[in-house]
Amino acid sequence: MANNQKSLDTAFFGHPRGLSTLFFTETWERFSYYGMRAILLFYMYFAVTKGGLGMDQVTAASIMSIYGALVYLSGVVGGWLADRIWGSRKTVFYGGVLIMFGHIALSLPFGKQALLVSIALIVIGTGLLKPNVSSMVGNLYSENDRRRDAGFSIYLFGINLGAAIAPWAVPWAASGFGLNLFHGQMNFHVGFALAAFGMFFGLVQYSIDGRKFLSKDGLTPDDPISHEQLRPVIFRTLAVVAGFAIILLIMAAFDQLTINNVITIITIIAIGLPVYYFVLMLKSKKVTKVEKKRVAAYIPLFLSAVIFWIIQESGSVVLALFAEERTILHLGAWHFAAANFQTLNPIFMMMLTPLFAYLWDRIKHHPSAAHMFAAALVFAGLSYAFMALPGLIHGTTAGRVSPFWLVGSWFLVELGEVTLSPVGLSITAGFAPKAFKSQMMSMYFLANAAGQAVNAQIVKFYSSATEVQYFLIIGALGVIVGLVLVIFSKKIQAIADTE
Ligand code: GLU
Ligand code: ASP
User: Fold this and answer.
1) Residue 330: in which H helix or E strand, if any?
2) Which residues' Cβ are closer than 6 Å to ligand 1?
3) What is the pLDDT of residues 225-264, one digit of tens each?
4) Domains detected in the chain
5) How far, in Å, from the CA of 73 to the mean position of ligand 1?
6) What is the reported pTM?
């Protein structure tokens, strides 16, 4: 009966009405997240006299990346809490509330302390919210409902809609709504306040519509934890927290408790966690021989995804710096801000996704997942190699270059993202051993986390003086790994197909 109801509901573009609730929840949540990120880098390193925190630029860039890594790392915990304790509906709501308070913290004039509180709230909040909204989208459809993939594409559109509007709206608020309220300066706090409002609208919409249109299943956990099971979990969690606190204390004792060292530790955790999962799956007695082969075949795909996200996620760090320092910020009489460039990624994604879906429907022989990952990597690599050209042609000391370099680069990397994203999740599900189904799904987000954790280390080498080498080396790495993946794609596919 429940399944029948699911499949009968066509109220939102032929999809269940609940999809609209989740669509707009994510639109507003991503509006707040990407709006905040569009100005956060500049808020951190701009001089105090310009409304910033006056941090060192290299540290600010590194924080941007490690922050992004943490946001996807925490999803592992969020998925678990929903499955075992709160159910997805409440977990998402709590997450949204934390996120809103995270933005509110930054909207108050409390400097670096507020930044730290905000990062903590948004990391935990997004971990609670994001993976669970995605799984609720999946749950709108019965198992064999063929609309599910299309449902995810529509949902991805919602994500990118929020991500596209925010880099206009939030910098506009921060610059005084075009009214010169702040005398040509930025008031970043006003921008962060708008991000908080965004999350507030999302929460209101989610609560009111959710009650009407979301299934009651999400109100309880799928696999509720018993008291006996809970105790070791609490114990282990406390042990991890204590271990982390001890490490920090030791670092403090040796006068090594610096932002950079903390970032390095998080980098190690973000890279170590997927390695740990892979070893666990390859060694587990619950995993069959064939499944182990599949896990092994998934490893090159995972590594490719990490490299892809290294390039894609650097858009809000490296390309943002390029926009601020090396790009002409007007076209004729039309002036824009460096933060506005962040709109290009989601705009291209929204334009290219329908085109991609159309082509996908038309071609007879679909390329294998390994081929898709390879293509994505080559596009990403080219997007970086492309960014080496302005420096090569005009030199890096000659001043600013045309904004079309960035436009072209984002176009290329988004060709990659529309190739990778839709297959990424389903292939991860396909390679997952039965006993590790849910953990394996968080693996997909761990690829992004690991990529951003690597960025937290390598963005330190980026500056106008090194840009040509930086873009060329990483770009070449993307293209070469993509080509190597093509060579092994037959083998990988053969293993994936074995029953
Ligand atoms: N850019 C996408 C978003 O914000 C997600 C990136 C990913 O799939 O890891 O939702
Ligand atoms: N394209 C990214 C995500 O899908 C959004 C962004 O990075 O702005 O969805």
Assistant:
1) strand 330-331
2) 30, 159, 421, 445, 448
3) 898 999 999 999 999 999 999 999 999 999 999 999 999 9
4) 1-225 (1.20.1250.20), 285-499 (1.20.1250.20)
5) 13
6) 0.94
